[in-house]
Amino acid sequence: MPLAADQISTDPIRVMMVDDSAIIRGLYRRLLAQDSEVEVVNDASNGQQAVERLAKQQVDVIVLDIEMPIMDGLTAIPKLLEVQPSVTIVMASTLTAANADISLRAMEAGAADYIQKPTTNTELSTGQDFRSELLQKVKTLGEVGRRKAAMIAARKSALSPASPSAPAAAVKTDTSAPWSMPQQGDVSLRKAGMVKPKLLAVGSSTGGPQALRRFFELLSPDIGIPVVVTQHMPPTFTAILAEHIGKGTSWECREGAHGDLLKPGLALIAPGGYHMTIDDVGGTPTVHLNQDPPESFCRPAVDPMLRSVSKTYGAAVLTVILTGMGNDGMKGGQVIVDGGGTLFAQDEESSVVWGMPGAVAGAGICSTIAPLEELPKHIKQFVSRTV
User: Residue 319: enclosing H or E segment and its boundaries?
Assistant: First the structure.
């Protein structure tokens, strides 16, 4: 039964494991059983079996293998979402170029995130990093699924002839800001910087690959400034992501390489395993890659990129924080606005996880908070100002 709109369950997150290996399903069960906030309520050995079992039982999260007999994971995604639109799907794949490509296609098809599957049973059973990542994603995305189920239930209730129409949400506008937009709720918007941007810096994590693809589809390269992106992803995945964006949009997009120079129409993505910074070399902004310690448990991380672009470009930076888990980008975003730059964020409803954009919104450092579909329009208008 769908969850009531005003009562999101506090019961353990309900998980379905889908993998053709009974050994791996058993290992997943043992790893998740160590946390009382999670419960594996069902499993399946292929996509078809998962679709049939999901139709009989409410589930919050599905951890879905890619390669399976009868029905593979990519084929199963739209069928699973048709059965239960609120369920969140995490793809599990080993780190290969082929699987990275399929995982990104899976996220474009509706999967919320992916997890890198260890390649041996020993790594699966003893790897604390894998267990921590699996638990974090299952718990966070499980709550996302429950809120989505509650929203769906609320909409159905509002459309019912017997139900009174829900009152429209109050909308606030910061009319004192030279650049602002109406925003629901109590989040206040700060004044935007007054310097015309020379660089667009973007940060994202969970839900980011599909958000970035759509973002660059809607944002024309004729904004006339270069773009740098940090997306939390491992090696191989970032190269495939850049390839997907480059082929599917009008942007030239690739992984950043040490010594790269920035140019309008070029989007550079931080390669997995490396922080990417933009440093001034003889008056020329230049890409530097390093393997300094992870920040916010990530490498690449958004904060080091933002600190560097603020130092190099000063106030002439526009930053956008898209969907993502955690709060990476908040400290770097504060550096951006303290230096006179401007920060936009994706709104909660269009985010897969409103962690990173929610953190910068809560810190009061955003000039605009908008749905993903509208952010490119606001960026174009802001960059094209004559100041």
Answer: strand 317-321
Residue 281 CB-half CA count within 13 A: 12
Which residues are marked as active site? 205, 232, 328
Pick the closest to residue 256 from 323, 309, 325 (CA basis).
309
Measure Cα distances from 347 to 270, 336, 374 in Å: 24, 20, 10
Number of H helices, E strands in the chain: 12, 16
Q: Where are the domains of the chain?
A: 13-159, 171-383
Class of domain 171-383 (CATH, top level):
alpha beta
How far apart CA 67 and CA 152 sit, in angstroms, is: 31
- The upper half-sphere exposure of residue 256, i.e. CA atoms within 13 Å in the direction of its Cβ, equals 32
Stretch (H or E) spanning 291: none
Residue 304 tokens read as 């080091």
The maximal CA–CA distance of the chain, rounded, in angstroms, is 69
pLDDT (tens digit per residue) in 91-139: 998 867 777 888 889 998 999 999 888 766 555 555 677 888 899 999 9
Which CATH code for domain 13-159? 3.40.50.2300
Predicted local distance difference test score (pLDDT) of residue 93: 84
Whether 171-383 and 13-159 are alike in CATH topology: the answer is: yes
